[in-house]
Specification:
The chain is α+β, with helices and mostly antiparallel strands. It is built from 27 helices and 23 strands.
Length: 755
């Protein structure tokens, strides 16, 4: 009976505190500031509505602790209605816990106010539900920890203003504690302490869709620790004498909480809630690992200095540990090259160079030499991952290297540039990118007199960029290479060329030998240049070069997510394709249903179509499109499989695989620079990797490669007018309607109390 009365009293006290707290003007004001601050930081400060906008919400949630510097001390500020709390017939600990729960519920209400912003982000792109879930869970645990801390400070200090100021200062320090090691050379003990105190360190995993019990136990242990300390402080202030049992309780409870915090990393688990299960071992990896016959040694060379500064380095070690646990034949060793010069020399022999990390100490700037490299060894052979700081692509990188070791076959791609441009400048990202993806690149130059001989001596997928400078004898060599079955092929070609460095004028190609070969195989390049309302949004200088303008350019098509381009991509002035009625010839890439086309004036030698972005944008703005051609889905990528017959030779192939992309600029350095924004857009190169993996017979690895990244672009809205309308709606909801709604609720609650 007494227990039931205690529970009833506790519940009534909790409800009483909640009702009175919700009515206070301070809670309404702080709630408005909370929602507005986080929204301003994400939508305005992070430039969501510019070309660099992203639907990755890690920057959205990471702003919460900074507004909490003010919001949490304000929630913990002792209100006038709480002056009679000491007379409530509950133990001190239960009263403190009820007050703690009240504040935590109020904090959760403030977190709920962030949901409209998240829903509005989904109007522009796709968010990760797992990331939202884990971020909110971690923020609730964070709120519990800092609320108990501020409650302890309030209990220890009698002056309410002083406790508020000190609480805010301490939270400010805690939020940035992980940065101390960047600016000050701290001993290992203090570095580890700073990391433990930092919210950013504990939030890193949750912000990516991972729930890590180490972080949650640390925050939960902190909450319990300060609640128990608050109880002890109150008892001491009241002058209560402690019996032996009571002394033991006041010592053991905080001690157990501290042990929970310190030992949470000994036995832990990580649950992957990310949308694509990016941080979990896939079925493909497990199948690949099961094929290991001889021992594999994985060595992770990780500098202690980089491990101190970046929480994501922990993810790399955790994933490697889980990966190695899949088989007894895999061993994992973690070494610190900072402490052993012999290890550094060995890394140089592997071709692994150190990276320079900039740090600031006092008034000087220093560059630390760091390593975060992985070496995989089996039977005297080795594969390397020269540098990694994130686990989201690690499984793909490991599987690609391990597959090479098991099979003993290198992943080779032969690259031919046939449009007068070059790999060193115009396509400067292609080779470094493919090398980072585990490909061995073999460039074959059409200018070389031994071109035919070099191509005959090669094997593996062929990547051909452009056709305008490919002569008939070189086209014959390429045809013979494919029909002899030496390798599959990816053609990025078109019957038209564009002056990408100057006027953007489009003209007919000098040679079209490969275009004619592809058409012989059943894929026709129509005299149409595709355009789409789903297009790149680019920043251009006006004619006077004094002002910039953000405009949609319909000739640079932004492909929506589809089977062969799961992240989407951008194609530049692509030619529309028409496929023969053959089950072996299928569409590979398609436009949106709202696309249209321009018909080139083939009689013109200088300018086949209008390519000026300002003129096209003006035409779209005034009439809805720049041409009167009908709208509909168009094919701008094709795949040819099965038997092929020669055009220039009598060759024949029984089973081939050829992919055709009618755009020779989709991996151009200059073009990708236009669409990359501040953070870069590498979706075209992700597509290139994916296509080459499929052509190399690595479909399962290609599927894994697609899983490692997700499209965070604002792809859902492509029309400028619609985009501006939704932006205005977003601002009105977040900065007008929500604040006014909170004020109205506060007024209604106070009016009801007066009645």
């Amino acid at each position: 009976m007494m227990m039931k009365n205690q529970t009833s009293t506790f519940n009534n006290f909790l409800i009483h505190n909640l009702k009175n707290s919700l009515r206070t003007p301070s809670f309404v004001i702080i709630s408005i500031l909370f929602e507005v601050f986080v929204s301003i930081n994400f939508f305005i400060r992070q430039q969501f509505f510019t070309g660099s906008g992203t639907t990755d919400l890690i920057l959205f949630f990471s702003a919460v602790p900074y507004i909490c510097i003010i919001a949490i001390p304000a929630l913990c500020y002792k209100q006038s209605f709480s002056i009679y709390d000491d007379f409530v017939p509950l133990s001190t600990l239960k009263r403190e816990f009820a007050v703690f729960l009240t504040r935590l519920i109020l904090f959760c209400i403030q977190l709920i106010l962030l949901l409209p912003a998240i829903l509005l982000v989904n109007l522009f792109g796709t968010t990760d539900g797992g990331q939202i879930f884990t971020s909110l869970i971690c923020l609730i645990f964070y709120g519990a920890a800092v609320i108990s801390l501020c409650g302890f400070i309030q209990t220890a200090l009698s002056n309410k203003v002083s406790s508020f100021i000190i609480s805010a200062l301490i939270l400010g320090i805690f939020n940035s504690a992980h940065l101390f090691a960047v600016y000050v050379n701290l001993p290992d003990f203090l570095t580890n302490l700073a990391r433990s105190l930092s919210f950013a360190w504990h939030f890193d995993a949750a912000g990516k869709g991972l729930l890590d019990t180490r972080d949650l136990l640390w925050l939960a242990g902190s909450s319990a620790f300060f609640i128990f300390l608050s109880d002890t402080i109150i008892q001491i202030k009241k002058g209560r004498r402690f019996s032996k049992n009571l002394k033991l309780r006041h010592i053991l409870l905080p001690l157990i909480s501290m042990l929970l915090m310190l030992n949470g990393s000994r036995w832990y688990t990580r649950i992957d809630f990310s949308k694509n299960k990016t941080y979990s071992i896939s079925k493909y990896s497990k199948s690949l690992i099961s094929r290991i016959e001889s021992p594999v040694k994985i060595t992770y060379y990780r500098s202690s200095s980089i491990a101190k500064l970046y929480p994501q380095i922990r993810d790399v070690a955790d994933f490697l540990t889980e990966y190695a646990s899949q088989s007894k034949k895999i061993s994992l060793i973690i070494k610190d090259p900072d402490r052993d010069s012999a290890t550094r020399s060995m890394l140089e022999n592997y071709g692994i160079a150190s990276q320079q990390l900039r740090t600031v100490s006092g008034t000087s700037t220093e560059f630390l030499t760091v390593y975060s490299a992985i070496v995989i060894e089996q039977d005297g052979n080795a594969e390397t991952i020269p540098f990694t700081m994130a686990a989201n692509t690690l499984e793909y990188d490991l599987d690609g290297r391990l597959r090479h070791l098991i099979s003993g076959q290198a992943r080779i791609v032969n690259i031919i540039v046939g449009n007068g441009l070059n790999l060193s400048d115009d396509y400067s990202y292609v080779i470094p990118w493919l090398q980072s993806q585990g490909f061995v690149c073999n460039p074959i130059y059409i200018e070389d007199s031994a071109f035919t001989e070099e191509l005959e001596a090669s094997n593996g997928p062929l990547f051909v960029i452009g056709d305008s400078e490919i002569k008939i004898e070189q086209a014959i060599a390429i045809e013979d290479y494919i029909l002899c079955g030496k390798g599959t092929a990816l053609f990025a070609i078109s019957p038209y060329v564009t002056d990408i460095e100057n006027s953007w004028y489009m003209t007919q190609a000098k040679h079209t030998n490969l275009v004619e070969l592809i058409e012989h195989w059943g894929v026709t390049f129509l005299p149409r240049i595709a355009a789409d309302i789903s297009c790149a949004r680019i920043t251009m200088y006006a004619d006077d070069n004094n002002q910039t303008k953000l405009i949609n350019y319909p000739l640079w098509i932004s492909l929506l997510q589809q089977k062969n381009s799961p992240l989407g991509m951008t194609l530049f002035w692509p030619t529309v394709l028409e496929l023969a009625d053959d089950e072996n010839i299928i569409p590979y890439l398609s436009t949106s249903p709202a696309s249209y086309f321009f018909e080139p004036d083939l009689q013109s030698k200088d300018k086949l179509i209008e390519t000026n972005p300002f003129i096209l944008n003006e035409a779209v703005t005034t009439s809805g499109s720049a041409t009167a051609t009908p709208r509909g889905t168009q094919i701008i990528g094709a795949q040819i499989t099965g038997p092929l017959e020669g055009l220039y030779t009598t060759g024949h192939a029984e089973n081939q695989n050829v992919i055709v992309i009618p755009d020779q600029y989709f991996v151009s350095s200059l073009m990708n620079g236009y669409i990359g924004g501040e953070t870069g857009d590498y979706r075209n190169f992700e597509f290139l990797t994916n296509a080459l993996l499929k052509l190399n017979g690595e479909e399962e690895l290609a599927a894994l490669q697609s899983r490692t990244t997700r499209d965070t672009s604002l792809y859902k809205v492509t029309d400028v007018i619609q985009f501006n309308t939704l932006r205005l709606i977003t601002y009105i909801i977040l900065f007008v309607i929500l604040p006014l709604l909170l004020i109205a609720i506060g007024v209604i609650l106070n009016v009801k109390r007066e009645k």
